Amino acid sequence: MTNKDFEKRNQKKIKSMVDDKEIEKISRKWFNRVFSYEYSYHFSWLGRPIIQFPQDMIAIQEIIWKTKPDIIIETGIAHGGSLIFSASILELIGKGKVIGIDIDIRKHNRKEIEKHPLKKRITMLEGSSLDGEILKQVKKLVKNKKKIVVFLDSYHTHEHVLRELEMYSPLVKNGSYVVVFDTMVEFMPKNSFPNRPWDKGNNPHTAVMDFLKKNKRFKIDKEIENKLLITSCPDGFLKCIKS
User: Fold this and answer.
1) Nearest CA-CA partner of 81 in 112, 44, 39
2) Separation CA 67–CA 70 (nearest Å)
3) How many H-runs (helices) and E-runs (strands) does the chain carry?
4) Element (H, E) at 218
């Protein structure tokens, strides 16, 4: 079987999965069931906790490998696993840097990231992703870079994510991506986050929907989501379709 035939067969199977609405129900039910066990906290990448679903890690790898970006901008650092993950794919490609932004980079996390073998591909900025000074620093770092990918995974309220989209999406050009994490909040039971300000009606998904009403440069790449079935980013894989 040629690669072309193999891909054609995969697309046919994926379409059949999408048409099977029972699979979507089971996937959403599974997601909600494992949430209380902090499922996404159970994994690491090259020694650092990543706090992502393995399915989304595969999707991110595919995006990075396909787009081969000069710069990846990530809002939200936590333990640094996602930065290391992105840096490792860039290392295999042989080019590119990751810019990580977080309002509070814990000393022990910074120490571990800075001594990691892939630190050479990572720059960390401490401050709010919505801070104009932080954006200025980012723009300086990405100056003259053609291919930029953005991952938004910091503060998950509607207002915050919408503002991030407005600020960072202009850096992304035709064919590249903005990925908005934790859009799944909209599809989870109400009050799933009793100690957080986000919930149904106020989350990354609602921000994405508002953003797309006004911004015609991006569209939801459903092909990615359709084959994942389980993802924290439903409707969150945004592909830039015009520069």
Assistant:
1) 44
2) 9
3) 9, 9
4) strand 218-220
What's this model's pTM, rounded to 2 decimal places?
Answer: 0.97
pLDDT of the chain, 243 residues: tens digit per residue: 899 999 999 999 999 999 999 999 999 999 999 999 999 999 999 999 999 999 999 999 999 999 999 999 999 999 999 999 999 999 999 999 999 999 999 999 999 999 999 999 999 999 999 999 999 999 999 999 999 999 999 999 999 999 999 999 999 999 999 999 999 999 999 999 999 999 999 999 999 999 999 999 999 999 999 999 999 999 999 999 998
Which tokens hold the place of 150?
């953005």
HEC assignment per residue over 143-189: CCCCCEEEEECCCCCHHHHHHHHHHHHHHCCCCCEEEECCHHHHHCC
Residues in the chain: 243
CB 187 within 8 A of CB 209: no
DSSP 34-103: HHTTTGGGG-EETTEE--S-HHHHHHHHHHHHHH--SEEEEE--TTSHHHHHHHHHHHHHT--EEEEEES
Domain count, the chain: 1
The string over 72-86, giving b where at least 16 C-beta atoms fall within 10 Å of a residue's C-beta and e elsewhere, is: bbbbbbbbbbbbbbb
Q: What is the span of the domain harbouring residue 203?
A: 3-240
Compute CA distances 132 → 35, 50, 57, 101, 129, whole Å.
34, 27, 30, 13, 8
Report the alpha-carbon distance of residue 179 to residue 74 in Å, rounded.
10
CATH value at residue 184: 3.40.50.150
188, two tokens: 């989870």
